[in-house]
Each structure stands twice: as C-alpha cells, then as structure tokens.
Amino acid sequence: MSAQTRQSIRRRVVGKNVWLSRADSGAHEESARLPARKINYEVLESEEAVGRAMLEDLEEYARAKRGDLVIILLGGRGAQAMYRLLSVKARTGEADWLLGRLHVFTQDALAPMRMDNGLSFVRDFERLLGPDFFRKVKSFTPMRTDAGDLEGELVRYLETLESLGGIDIFFLGHGPEAGAASHLAYIKPGSGARAEDLAGVIPISPSILEHHVSKFKAGGSAVTAADEAECRAATHILTLGPAAILGARRVVQSIVDAGTAPAKRASYRRFLEEEISEDARERARQLDENPGLWLRLHPNVRSLILPDVLEA
Fold this sequence. Notes:
This protein has helices at 3-8, 27-31, 47-64, 80-92, 96-99, 121-136, 150-163, 206-218, 225-232, 242-247, 263-273, 280-289, and strands spanning 9-14, 17-22, 42-43, 69-73, 102-106, 108-111, 139-141, 169-172, 175-176, 182-183, 197-203, 236-240, 250-255, 301-305. Strands 3-14-13-8-4-5-7 form a 7-stranded parallel β-sheet, with helices on both faces. A 5-stranded antiparallel β-sheet has the order 1-2-11-12-6. The chain has a two-stranded antiparallel ribbon with strand order 9-10. The chain has one domain (9-22, 36-310): Rossmann fold. It is globular. It is of the alpha/beta class.
C-alpha cells in the first residue's frame, strides 16, 4: 500500500470487523440529517419480469447519460434473470451500444478463495453472463480474493472505482437476519458499519457459509468437492459499505427468492415499516442493528419484488 493511499484511507476496527473510509469524509455526521424515505416497491408477476425490468432500467439510464457507466453486479438469485437476458443480447450484438460503455464491479466476496472457485461470485457471473458479455464490456473489476493482503487489494479496488467517477447503478438484493433484520451486500447487523465506510473486511460465520453453499448449488453452479472445501475454509467477507450504497446515483433492488428464503418476508416488511429515528445516536443504533435500513436513506431507489414477498 502506497504512502498516499495510507494517508487517504482511514482504517477503523470494530470488534473483528475492519472498515475503510476516506480520511476526510464527513459522511457520519451528514447521515444523521438525511431524510428517511418510504420505499415504493413494485410487485411483478415473475422472476423473468423482474429481470426484464432491471435490464430496461439499465438501458434507460444508459440512454439518458453520455459516456461510460459504472455498475455493481448483484450475486445470488436476485439478478439471474437479467443476466440471462444480457447473455443473449451479448451473443447477438443487440446490446453492443450498451456493453461497450460498461465498467462492471462486484459488491462482495468470500476470502481467501481462488478466483476460479465454482462457489465464487465471479465464476457464477461468468456462467450466467457468458464470455461474450465479458469480452464486450469496457472493464470488469472483481474483488480479489486470492491475495495475501486482502485489505490492500480492497483499497486498490476502491481506487479503481473512484477513478471511474463512482457508481451509476448499484444492483442490490435483501438478506434476512435474525429478528427480521436485514443485510445489504454483506453489511451485517452489529458489524459497526457507518455512513462513511466505503468497504469492509468482516469475519464469516458457519451459517453464512452454509447459506452461500446451498444458494449456489440451488442456483445451478457446478461445484467440486475441492471448491466446497475451500469455500467452507474461508474466514472473511469483503464487502462494499454504506458509503458506496449512499453514493450510488441509482439503486435497483430485486427480491425474487422468498419462496426458498421465507425469512425475507418478515425482514422486508420490517425494512418497509420501521420508523427511522431523527436522533443521531438512536438512528446509528438502528442502522447497525438492521443494515437494510441504509437503503431508506437513499433518494433514488427502485425496489422490485414478487408477490410472495408480501405473504404473511
């Protein structure tokens, strides 16, 4: 890590969690003044319809903006339908006008792990989006999980993201937690994330590993015994933080798997209904207890869900 980088990035430790932020950031104080917003969710009839809506949102944004776009890919089930559509368009050339302008990043990763592990998000993106997509996009920058210095690699990732002008569209899901709380990316309850935190390195639990393995197997990933053993030996998760989410120009959230992850129903309901305090200390406590609420502080969110998300 260079001397300039050490000066510009502040490292904050909360328990076993490490959070990275800009040394001159005043976002922590500013977050207490951000208005809490209601989420006007859209209920669509199928996972395929959600995928089409996500792709149409990306295309509409691209038509309205000149130059390149920076997007954050969503791992897991939420964006798979969009990725299948993009894969077809990449093979036909229909979306070349869009793909050639995209700088593509990932939002979280298990580490340490080989980049070609079948249980890595990168390998899943390659499977779903196909080689033509990655050949045609302007750049692809994953979080490196095979480096000896994970924090240093994460800082370099953040510098690349910043050099391209920041995030245009952040594709997000919604992860359920105990007590109907929720996580975004892998900003977990009790991890101490604050508004100025761009990214973090957080310890991983056996329950998260089990969920990750089962989710990827259910999604059709090809997983070898060696892949699974390496994945279960991972010790940390690299994740983008609240500052990256709040700094994105647009957030598109998708929730399509409440049928296989029923805890998302109560979690999403609490996310919609919880009253966010205007008191700075109480708001900070709420956000740490239920990180999904960070999305309620963003001014430009589209939340796409299936009907079963609203079932009791």
